[in-house]
Specification:
By secondary structure, the protein is of the alpha+beta class. 24% of the residues lie in helices and 33% in strands.
Length: 101
């Protein structure tokens, strides 16, 4: 059985913890990453979507490559890109690859 003293100590500890937690800076919890993204739809010359098309993005400075595949409606998204120069290559089965920087 808890005594009044134990209940008081628990209440004081909880209140102290909540007060300290409320004073902690939350800026880092809400910070933005600074990264951008490339997204779009891969289409052929007639405007038809190309599901399964590939998109390869290579950072020219670091050489880091990110590759993704378009979904069933041709949509793709490549997140996590920081400022820099990139080479983007699009391709689809049976189609010529297209690249630009």
């Amino acid at each position: 059985m808890k005594t009044i003293r134990n209940i008081f100590q628990t209440t004081v500890r909880t209140a102290f913890f909540l007060t300290i937690a409320g004073l902690l800076p939350t800026d880092s919890l809400l910070a933005q990453s600074g990264a951008g993204l490339i997204q779009g739809t891969i289409q052929d010359a007639t405007g038809a979507a190309l599901p399964g098309g590939t998109v390869k993005v290579v950072n020219q400075t670091t050489g880091v490559m990110i590759e993704t595949t378009a979904n069933k409606v041709g949509f793709y998204s490549v997140p996590g890109l920081f400022a820099g120069s990139y080479t983007v290559t699009y391709g689809a089965p049976g189609m010529k690859k297209i690249s630009w920087t």
